[in-house]
Amino acid sequence: MNAQSKLRHATTAIFLLDDCGLELPLTECLRRLRTLFSAAKFIVLDKHKSEEEVLRMLWYGIQGFLSHSEVKSRLLPAIHSVSEGRMWVAADLLHTYMTHAHETRGRNRGTSLTPREEQITELVKRRFSNREIGGTLRIRESTVKFHLTHILSKAIIPLTK
Question: Model's pTM, two decimal places?
């Protein structure tokens, strides 16, 4: 089995993308990788980015962001966190992302979160993993993933410069 084939069959593939070294736009790289590795997770490395730029990357579907200056001290914890189902971004940015998603979902989709989706959103803001959310709410991890899919489908909005 070749390396690409092994990655496709891995439980969770985590890609580290250095946005300074990409020949294609980040969104195109993510699209192509998702075509080959649908369950993959992504951590982006780059020089310092503005809050708006990191939020935009979260909307594109990354699970983590590290500036180049953080790589030496924080890369391994970031990989562990993402592999456990958590996002790895500054807590204030994660809060902004979730709050913005919550505020805009009704305006953009005409829908609101169910009480269970509200509970899960609150636990995500507190950086709980899918497994921890399931344990806290006494539901299966697959049910948490189901709810997260619905939450994100209600929250996704286009971000333009």
Answer: 0.59
